[in-house]
Amino acid sequence: MLCDLNVPWPVNDYETKPTLDQLNTLKLIILTLDELNYTHIAINLTIPQNLKLANNKINVNPIDLKLLNLPRWKGSINDQGHDHDSTGSGSFKNIQKIFKRLTISIEEPSKCSLLSKLNNFNSVFDVISIQPLSEKALLLAVTNLDIDLISFKFDEKLPCFLKHKLICSAIEKGIKFEISYNSLLSDNNYIKRQFFTNTLSLIRSSRSRGLIISSGAKSFLELRSLFDITNLIILLGMNHNDCKLSMTDIPGKVILNGRLRYKSYKQIVTIDEFSNILNNEIEEENNNREDSNLFIKDNDKKRKSYLNNVMEREKKKLKN
Amino acid sequence: MNNSKDSIEYKLLSRCSNFNNEKKIVDALDSRYSLTGSQKNYLILKPTEGDNNTSKNKKRKKKSLSILRQITSNTGNNNNNNNNKFNGLRTRNEFKTFIKNNLKLQKNLNKKLSCTTNSVESFQEFNEILKFEDFIKINELWNSYLKNLLSVSNNKLPNVQAALSKLSSADLIGSFITVIKSSTYNNVGIAGIVIWESQYNFIIVTPRNNNWKDDINIPIPTLSVNYTSKEKIGGIRIISKRNTIFGFYLPINDQELIEFSVIGNRFLIKSYDRANKKFKNHNVNDLI
Description:
The complex is a heterodimer.
Chain A: E1 3-8, H1 20-35, E2 40-48, H2 77-81, E3 97-106, H3 118-122, E4 127-132, H4 135-143, E5 149-151, H5 164-173, E6 176-180, H6 189-206, E7 211-214, H7 226-235, H8 240-245, H9 249-263, E8 264-265, E9 269-271, H10 281-286, H11 299-303, H12 306-319
Parallel strand pairs in A: 1-2, 2-3, 3-4, 4-5, 5-6, 6-7
Antiparallel strand pairs in A: 8-9
Chain B: H1 8-14, H2 22-31, H3 51-64, H4 67-72, H5 75-83, H6 91-115, H7 136-150, H8 160-168, E1 176-182, E2 191-197, E3 201-206, H9 229-233, E4 235-240, E5 244-251, E6 257-263, H10 271-274
Antiparallel strand pairs in B: 1-2, 1-5, 2-3, 3-4, 5-6
């Protein structure tokens, strides 16, 4: 499991639709990620704080993977039917799941009307994150909001000095922090310097716990493999093992947290089998997550489930 | 009343420094039971602090009484008994001993079975052990209860979120449950009907011979799968909720069923507190 939770969606609002060029670059990014052995990917939509929500719940999420005309995911349900060929052009080599992520950048929390409607996003996006631009927003995100991720703008100055107490209280709650390495690869020296100071302070205040590393790449040339990134982050004073964890396990937890918010009631009772929680194929196919027909799908498969088998057997015994 | 000089009281008082006169002693002895004197004609008894001793004695006495006598004795006493945490007659304690005895019987049976090749039915203990077949009716009742709760009918299915929030406060006694994932790997795959839910444990009744081994189809008959003696017996199992994930399902009609799973780590609440509790999301570190 190798994750990249930040593949930016080219458009930042609802009205404009992505042009063909932009879609092509996005497709190229995804295909190179596949080539670099990534397995779980999240496509990230970043919206400003004063954006108005679309009325229709289906339209809240503009990310449409069907536009990209992507190959089939590895090991998907459709894959088993016809032309099962893992090496051919028909399917990905490594990518198993593509998730959808929402990032709201907040400067003044009181002006942001989206925050009260965060529940509406639960059913549409897999991962919800916040990009605080001021100290107020950071405090609010850590203490009050029900989110998975906090990401900073790495090409600018951080909103405030990061205190260990604040950051680690967030990590204890289950909110992780994101380092996106794309600003390191830019030509501008100022941005590079900012990246170094920002990540250093983030690593220091979090004691290298609960960090995830993602690309945030705008073109496929900005992507790096796992080992390249570990080399880079070791330079910044992070442990080798921690660095690998922040590319594999911790993003997995972020996804699980986000999926559980939709698939379960307060992480107590979940619908579906627990191992199926990361599976978002059925919803993608239906393109309608609000509907309850998500409840039952491919009955024959479920009918053979172990639970039912035991029960049926016992009932038959009784009749005999 | 004995005022002679040989009496014990007289001799005791004669030693006392206050009563140096013989007359004083006689006066004091005369007036000790009088109604008008400084002395009072009754004794004041105050409760001492050694309460525990007396209650222990009472307990000993009451244990020796037969159950019939206890029932027929005063109702006031019975109330006191019910307040006592360790009283054997409390339903809770009775249930506890019942389960303990059952587990003991299963253990004995297990020992006997492992020595012989006889079938389980041939042993005497088998008749006293809880059996899965008796609880199938409870499971059917539970199914109809859950259908009512979620308002499921043949055509209509409930909204996901609403159904899940109702499920979090639903009663699970009677549901058919399996252990999907667990840190104690011996428990994985155990399935049975829940008969009791405590804060930290589910108590379930498992069927005989029914385990994942039944689903293995081996074409060569000589390589048939063997069951351990514990699996042959079935009966009560106590499964802790910590670090386990349980699955259960609700059949809608003959062909369809809805599957749910319960995350045990978040379920460590007494079932009657669960109805009113406000839940919160937590760190998911313990779920992977």
